[in-house]
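Section 5.1 Outputs to date
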Amino acid sequence: MEPSQSLHVAPQRNTAFYNSGLRLLRHVHNAEKQGTPFLWIERAVHRLTGELGSWYGIDAGTLREGDRADIVVINPDKLDESLDAYAEHPVESYSGLSRMVNRNDDTVGAVLVSGQLAFSAGKAAPALGKQRFGQFLRAGRPSRKLTPTA
């Protein structure tokens, strides 16, 4: 690159384009319904949770007594073509820059972070963004146990 040239980096417009896990579950679910299973749904869920936690070396992705409870509740009847919808949403912190998003509110019924309801029925919990729900997970280190909240 010539010294007189400038390098422009385009902002990421697809930072929230993240429903590939739901698409995998749809593929597995449809194959089961058609009598041509290639992967059990339980194994697919483990692939998206426990195996990823293990691969990244973080204390996440499994449900065990005494662990943090980060849970996503999925409606299998909504693992449908709605997962293919495309949408954009402005991000205020980026001067209103529009970004691609995949919001599958009918598919994802609820999200709990550390046992606290963060999202349900298409709406964020009022406390989300105002109080701490979880913690940053560092690779190779066990996460500290969070104290339960009322």
